[in-house]
Each structure stands twice: as C-alpha cells, then as structure tokens.
Amino acid sequence: MIQQASSFGVLSRAIKQQQLVLKCFNPRDYAEDKHRTVDDRPYGGGPGMLMKVEPLEKAILAAKELAAKKWAAKETAAKATKVVYMSPQGKPLNQQMLVAQAAKMAAAEPEDLILIAGRYEGIDERIIESLVDEEWSIGDYVLSGGELAAMVIVDGITRLLPGVLGDDDSALQDSFMQGLLDHPHYTRPEQINDQTVPDVLLSGDHQAIQRWRLKQAIGRTWLRRPELLDAMKHDASRWDDNKASLLAEFMAEHE
Ligand SMILES: C[S@@+](CC[C@H](N)C(=O)[O-])C[C@H]1O[C@@H](n2cnc3c(N)ncnc32)[C@H](O)[C@@H]1O
C-alpha cells in the first residue's frame, strides 16, 4: 500500500530527488512464529483482534535504530524521532500541524517521523504509553487500517518541504495556509458552452487579479467555513479594513 501510494506525482518525485526518505517496517517481518502472526486476542474478550505486541514493538524499535544509525553515520543531520500513532482517537489533523512538522523536518537538525499504522481494533495501550509520543487522527471516522492515514500525513508534509513543489510559494496560496479557503481557478478554454472566465482574470491587471482572488477566498470561506472567518476576524494580526471591505463587497454581490 505504501509503495503504491508513494509511486505517483509529487511524492514519488520527492523520493527520487532524495528530498524525502520513506522506509516501511512491516511487523510481519518481525514475527517469530512460523505463521508470522501479527494479531492477538484482546484481554476481556469481545469481538475483534489487536495487533500483537512483540512484532509491532520490534518494528518500531527497528525504525528507531535505523534513524539512530543514520545519525551516527552522519548520513543525516537528524537527531530526534517523533513516534506518532495514527488513531481515530488522536489529535485531529490540520494544515497547521503539517506546516509545523514540515518545518521540523526541514530544520538544520531535522526530526525523523515514525508513523504507526494500526490494524484490527488497534494496538495495545502499553505500546502507546511506552513508545508513542503523539496520536494523530485524520478525521472523525474509522478506517480499517492506519496505512492510508499515515500516507495522508506523508503526502501533506512532503509537499511543504522546501524545493518539493516547483515554486515554494505555491503551497502558500492553498486553502488553510493563510486561514482562508483558496479562490476559484480557471484554465483554457476561455468559453465552455455558456460558461466564461471572469473578465478580471483576462485583464492582465495583476493588482486587480490579486484583489479579486482575495475577495473570492474571503467570500468562499464565509460561505463554506464561516468558523474560519470568525477566527480570523477575532485576530487583529490577520484581519484588516481591506479584508472587511472585500467581504462586504462579496456579500453584497452574493445577495
Ligand atoms: C479499525 S481501526 C481501530 C479503531 C479503534 N478500535 C477505535 O475505535 O478507536 C484500525 C486502525 O486504523 C487506523 N485508523 C482508523 N481510523 C483512523 C483515523 N480516523 N485516523 C487515523 N488512523 C485511523 C488506526 O491506526 C487504527 O489502529
């Protein structure tokens, strides 16, 4: 799953260009019985299985050991690892968490990230207590395994690492980066049946285009995610008269 998910687009290019090193540790490779068992029954009974403790623990320790060896061999400037268990009970993921983690991974002494993907009913609580630094959730729903959740994190962080996107500023324009949703986008052709491109985007007037884009971003956020706009309005460093008048204009046009 991880190989598949990392073999396309931005992620695959970042790996090829060594902007990101992605290693997979399969607990099954650390199981010692002949069936390579990775699940076990929960104490107290009930439906479902849990991930077996020993293979998972060994896989996590192997990931930590590899990171430590890379530091010792000075193959990387990293000197720390953060172990994150992907869990629906974890801290809900947002863009700010990805930005913060990407910054740590791009720092002079970067932090390696170990993501634990659970299966079955999850993992033994004692592994969380002894080996996990944080728990992150990708949303209030339950997946059958943590691999896709882990890949959401890997993808979201990778595109924020310096040099990964063609233009480092392009991520800055995305939804949530500045607290707003992104503005609408158009490409050729200029006309599709009776649908046209807004005139301002064809005007060549860069100031007017910037103003229109900001107005649309504010307006969209007001329509779709009013709570984000409310948070911005209560933060003097992020809200000003210009934004207020663009919002008023958008609201009047929307009427
Ligand atoms: C079926 S889930 C276990 C759910 C667990 N019994 C609970 O209700 O909290 C199996 C694994 O999928 C992953 N997972 C499921 N939903 C997730 C989410 N929203 N965010 C992150 N990981 C998730 C976790 O790694 C979890 O251990």
Can you summarize this structure?
42% of the residues lie in helices and 13% in strands. The chain is α/β, with parallel strands linked by helices and 255 residues long.
Overall CATH class of the largest domain: Alpha Beta
Q: Record the strand order, biggest sheet.
A: 4-3-5
The overall number of domains is: 2
In round numbers, the mean pLDDT is 96
Please estimate the helix content.
40-55%
Named CATH topology of the largest domain: Alpha/beta knot
Q: How is the main sheet built?
A: 3 strands, parallel
- The named CATH superfamily of the largest domain: SPOUT methyltransferase, trefoil knot domain
Topology:
Layout lengths: L1 H4 L3 H8 L22 E2 L9 E2 L1 H20 L7 E13 L2 H11 L5 E7 L7 H7 L2 E4 L9 H12 L32 E2 L2 E2 L2 H4 L3 H19 L1 H8 L7 H14 L1
Parallel strand pairs: 3-4, 3-5
Antiparallel strand pairs: 1-2, 6-7
Helix pairs in contact: 4-6, 8-9, 8-10
The chain binds S-adenosylmethionine (SAM).
The site of S-adenosylmethionine has 19 residues, from β3.
Notable characteristics:
255 residues, alpha/beta, Alpha/beta knot, Trp Operon Repressor, Chain A, two-stranded antiparallel sheet, 10 helices, 7 strands, 13% strand, elongated, binds S-adenosylmethionine
Structure report:
There is one protein chain. The chain is α/β, with parallel strands linked by helices. It folds into 2 domains: 2-158, Alpha/beta knot; 175-254, Orthogonal Bundle (Trp Operon Repressor, Chain A), CATH 1.10.1270. It is 42% helix and 13% strand. It has 10 helices and 7 strands. The chain has helices at 2-5, 9-16, 53-72, 95-105, 125-131, 147-158, 199-202, 206-224, 226-233, 241-254; strands at 39-40, 50-51, 80-92, 111-117, 134-137, 191-192, 195-196. Strands 4-3-5 form a 3-stranded parallel beta sheet, with helices on both faces. A two-stranded antiparallel sheet has the order 1-2. It has a two-stranded antiparallel ribbon with strand order 6-7. α4 links the parallel β3 (80-92) and β4. α4 packs across α6 (147-158), α8 (206-224) crosses α9 and α8 crosses α10. The N and C termini lie far apart (48 Å). 19% of the residues are buried. The structure holds S-adenosylmethionine (SAM).
